[in-house]
Amino acid sequence: MEYTKPLLRLIEYFQKLPSIGPKTAQRLALYILKMEKPEVESFANAMVEAKTTIKYCSNCYNISSNDPCEICTNTSRSRETICVVAEAKDLFAIEKTNEYSGQYHVLQGLISPMDGIGPDDIKIKELLKRVHENEIKEVILALNPSVEGEATALYLSKLLKPFGIKVSRISYGIPIGSELEYTDELTLIRAIETRQEV
Amino acid sequence: MEYTKPLLRLIEYFQKLPSIGPKTAQRLALYILKMEKPEVESFANAMVEAKTTIKYCSNCYNISSNDPCEICTNTSRSRETICVVAEAKDLFAIEKTNEYSGQYHVLQGLISPMDGIGPDDIKIKELLKRVHENEIKEVILALNPSVEGEATALYLSKLLKPFGIKVSRISYGIPIGSELEYTDELTLIRAIETRQEV
C-alpha cells in the first residue's frame, strides 16, 4: 500500500526544505492532516503572504517589508562601518547581541564553485558600489568558518584592498563556556594562530 | 531589529510542527522566501489539498482518499487478524515489510493521561465493535515500547480478553545488526524476559 497522491505531494514539498529528510517530511505531512482545516489554511496563507509581501532592501539586501530597510534608514546607526554577512539570519544573530550599530551588507550566499555559485551570483558588485560611493572606514567580514566562507572572505579582502579602508574578520576560536579538551583540532589551530597579545 | 510581521507569522507556524524548534523554523521560513513564487503557491496548495481531500477510513481509521480504504477493500488480504497501530505511519512501516497481509486498526493516538488523552479519545470503541461484529481470530498489538504504548497495550488486552480471541504483541528486543554490548538496559531486560525456546 502506498500513500495517497495528495499526501505524497505534500511529503515531497516538505522534503525540499533544508534539513528535512524523508522521515521528518512524512511526520510533518501527517501532522498537517491532523491540524484543523482553518489552521492549515492560514498556515498556507502565511506562506504565500510572506513570499509576496517581503522584499529585499535594495541597499543592503536584508529582508524587509520596506525598501530601504529599517537598518539602512536608521539615522542613529553609524554609516562608517559595513558588516558583511552571508544570509539575513546571520544579520539577525548579530543584531541580537546589541553590540553592533553600523550598517550591514547581506551577500545572499557564499562563493561555492561546487554548487555553481560564483562571485557574480551573490551581492559582491553591490557591496563594492556601496564602498565606492559612501565614506566607509571599515568593512567587517562576518562569514561562517567554512570552506565557502573562507573563500568568499579571501576574495572580498582582495577586492576591498584598493579602497584603502580597514578590512577585518570576526574571530574564530574556542566558544565561551566550552573546554579546550573538547575543542576540535581545526578550531584549536585557528585559536592559536589568531592569538592576541594581552 | 525584529523580523517583519509576515515572516514572524510564518516562523510561528513552522514552529508548531513536531520536532521543529525556533532555529529550524527560522531556517525553513527564510528558505520559503528564497523559493520561486509559483513553487511557494503550489506548496501552500498541496497543504490545503491534502487536508481537504484526505479522509480517514471509517472502518480501520487509516488515511485514505477512499472510504473504506484500499486495505479494507482488498479481498486478497486475510480478514481474521487485526494489527493495531497508534498512527498511520506505523501502518506504512509494517506494510513496507510485505510480511503482513491481514487487516489494520489505527488508534489515532495512545492513551496518555499526561497529555489528557483518555481511552475515549482514541479509536478503542471502534476496535471493540469490529472485533465484536467480525470473525476475528487474532489481534496483534503493534504499539511503541513507550509508557503510553505499554499502558494502551495493557488496557486493550484487558478489554479484548472477554472475546476469547488470541491477543499478541510484537516482540521488543535487540535490533538485528546491533550488538548486545551497546544495547540499553531496558531493551536487554525486555529481551531476556521475552526469550523464546529454540
Strand runs of chain A, count: 6
Give the oligomer, counting copies of the same chain as homo and different chains as hetero. homodimer
Work out the radius of gyration of chain A: 21 Å
Mean pLDDT of chain A: 90
Protein chains sharing the most extensive interface = A-B, 50 and 50 residues
- Strand count, sense and closure of the main sheet of chain A? 4 strands, parallel
**Which bin fits the share of residues in helices of chain A?**
40-55%
Any overview of this molecule?
Two copies of one chain form a homodimer. In chain A, α1 packs across α2. Chain A has a four-stranded parallel β-sheet with strand order 4-3-5-6. In chain A, strands 1-2 form a two-stranded antiparallel sheet. The longest helix of chain A is centred in the N-terminal third of the chain and has 17 residues, at 37-53. Chain A is 44% helix and 11% strand. The model of chain A has no long low-confidence stretch (mean pLDDT 90). In chain A, β3, α5 and β4 form a beta-alpha-beta unit. By secondary structure, chain A is an alpha/beta fold. Chain A has eight helices and six strands; from the N terminus they run αααββαβαβαβαβα.
Question: What order do the helices and strands come in, and which of them pair?
Answer:
2 copies of one chain form a homodimer.
Chain A: H1 5-16, H2 22-34, H3 37-53, E1 55-56, E2 63-64, H4 70-73, E3 81-85, H5 88-96, E4 103-106, H6 124-133, E5 138-141, H7 147-160, E6 166-169, H8 185-193
Parallel strand pairs in A: 3-4, 3-5, 5-6
Antiparallel strand pairs in A: 1-2
